[in-house]
Design a protein that fits this description.
Elements: H1 3-17, H2 20-30, H3 35-42, H4 46-54, H5 63-77, H6 81-103, H7 115-171, H8 173-190, H9 200-228, E1 234-238, E2 242-247, E3 253-259, E4 264-267, E5 273-278, E6 283-287, E7 290-292, E8 298-299, E9 302-307
Antiparallel strand pairs: 1-4, 1-6, 2-3, 2-5, 5-9, 6-7, 8-9
Helix pairs in contact: 1-6, 2-4, 3-4, 5-6
């Protein structure tokens, strides 16, 4: 509201009020009451009493409270409250006309809504926009959160599949080595002179049969040798390929490697010895001349035990 509007409103208030509000002060003074007396009785402040007597109702806290204050004051002085409430209504209409004239220049017509209704509509529109923005923000956050979980799950699955694919390749390394070693004699055989070519087939067959018999007899022979040998050390015989780790009392690794089938190990170390034995069902263990049963210490083919 600019200065011109305020001046017009104040002039309109003075004209509509006239002597109506002054009659309240005159009635109070004729009864010999002070502003403090009325304030104490009506539970209003002295400032509010003086504002009512001047018709300055904008000082009061809201239109509904102002009407109640004016009615109570008029009744307390023995005056008709309707006269003053009508003056309030006339004053409100005059102020509304002045504001409408100031806000709507000639030729534009009147606004379809009052100021209060427009403010209310604007407030609801602003709240609606804020609520919509909040919902959009929450939706975007949840979509981002779900996509992040999906990306993380995909990454974990990719890493897991990589580990699963690498494991067979690592385990097959000894087999590849065995194939390479086995192929070397065959390559050497192809380089023999022509004079020996007639004896080569029978010699090759004999070598293969002999190698197969030796491979079958090695695990049993190794296990028998370990079980029958004396001494106070640790003896291991491998009927199948197995990873074994042995550490002495100081933590020193006496053995930590993958042992091929048919091999055996003889170890000496300060007890207690800590052992981790993979593929335990295919390993025979003798400690200080006595065979040790690995079954009570085995979980999923891996035995963990300590030897005193």
């Amino acid at each position: 509201m600019n200065e011109n509007t305020e001046a017009v409103v104040q002039a309109s208030e003075a004209e509509s009020a006239g002597d109506v509000w002054a009659s309240l002060r005159q009635a109070r003074e004729s009864l010999g009451m002070s502003v403090s007396d009325v304030s104490a009785h009506l539970k209003l402040t002295s400032r509010q009493i003086e504002a009512i007597e001047r018709g300055e109702l904008s000082v009061l806290p809201g239109a509904a409270f102002a009407r109640g204050f004016v009615r109570n004051y008029a009744r307390y002085l023995g005056l008709d409250p309707i006269v003053f409430t009508q003056a309030m209504d006339n004053n409100a209409l005059a102020v509304s006309d002045v504001l409408t004239t100031q806000m709507n220049p000639a030729g534009l017509g009147t606004m379809p809504f009052s100021g209060g209704t427009r403010n209310f509509a604007s407030l609801f529109m602003a709240l609606g926009v804020l609520a919509l923005l909040l919902l959009l923000s929450l939706g975007a956050y949840f979509r981002w959160f779900e996509s992040r979980d999906e990306d993380l799950l995909a990454e974990i699955q990719t890493e897991a599949s990589g580990v699963v694919q690498e494991a067979p390749l690592t385990a097959s390394a000894p087999m590849m080595g065995a194939l390479v070693v086995a192929s070397e004699p065959l390559a050497a055989m192809t380089n023999l002179p022509a004079k020996q070519s007639e004896a080569a087939p029978s010699a090759a067959v004999s070598a293969v049969v002999s190698a197969a018999a030796t491979a079958q007899s090695e695990p049993a022979a190794a296990a028998s040798a370990v079980a029958s040998s004396g001494g106070q050390g640790l003896k291991l015989a491998f009927e199948g390929e197995a990873w074994v780790e042995v550490r002495d009392a100081t933590g020193k690794a006496l053995l930590a490697k993958l042992n091929p089938a048919g091999s055996h190990q003889l170890l000496q170390g300060a007890p207690p010895l800590s052992l981790i034995v993979g593929n335990a069902p295919k390993v025979t263990l003798v400690w200080r001349g006595k065979e040790v049963d690995l079954k009570p210490h085995t979980k999923v083919d891996v035995a963990r035990l300590s030897l005193q």
